From TrEMBL:
Record-given protein name: Dihydrodipicolinate synthase family protein
Any Pfam family matching the protein: DHDPS
Organism: Falsiroseomonas frigidaquae
Keyword terms, alphabetized: Lyase
Family: Belongs to the DapA family.
Entries under InterPro entries matching the protein: Aldolase_TIM, DapA-like
Signal peptide: none
Amino acid sequence: MHRLSGVFPVLPTPFTAEDAVDEAAFRRLIDFAVEAGVDGVVFPGMASEVETLSAAERGQMVAVLGAHLAGRLPFIVGASHADPAESAARAREGMAVGAVCAMIMAPPQAGQDVAKQVAFFTAVADAAPGLVIMLQNAPAPNGAALSPEAVAAVAAAVPAIRYVKEETLPCGQHVTRILAAAQGGLDGVMGGAGARFVLDELARGANGTMPALEIADVHAALWKAWRAGDKAKARRIYTETLPLLLFQMNFRVRATKDVLRRRGLLEHIGARAAGPKFDAGDLAQIGELIATAASCMTMHRPR
């Protein structure tokens, strides 16, 4: 497997007007990601409303992703679960349809105890031979919020862990510390946190970012500019889109889906996830923020 790097957006789960998972809309979003020029995709994750999906729905959509993607891009399957046996089962489910890696959150119930975290990830790896793991280090209460040194220690003890998704604050500093502590023992550290700190992460050695999907073409252009050494262009793109990403921090998947709707990529934008809903003022504000970012969008100009 080639080293994973670049922009790997987390795909949202579209729902029909009747609140069923929408396979047709999901295929359109997969095609958008491919056409946007990203380097891979992730599903399911927190931005997919994974906590609201049944096991059957989750398996159904992972299968749709593998079949429709058909090797056009690598994909990472989300396989987080408190039970290592369940986590391994979800990883195997993804591997069976083409996933090249499983993203698994360091479980909060193991806390800061490195030995417990090692035991958890070892059990997952043992139950899924050949598995490549991306350890997701997320803030509490969803994640364990491990220190960078603890992340590196867990990875060193579990050979299957080749990547880290780091999204505890301050993200940039933590990328630096993980890479220093790992001493070359990882294939890469990717940033999360909605790409709100992406330039700091890249400057500190991150090998990519894993944002939400709504401006995937913009993030692909930013990554391309950064890799080409055009940091001024990368910063311009970042500056023009950051206000929209900050707005998304409050409304999460509802903001993602509304941007995708305005770009003509979603019809129904219902969300199951908990969290604040838009009022009239929010709808006006997001329209203004999308307009600010629109010059960076290379396809599906917002309506």
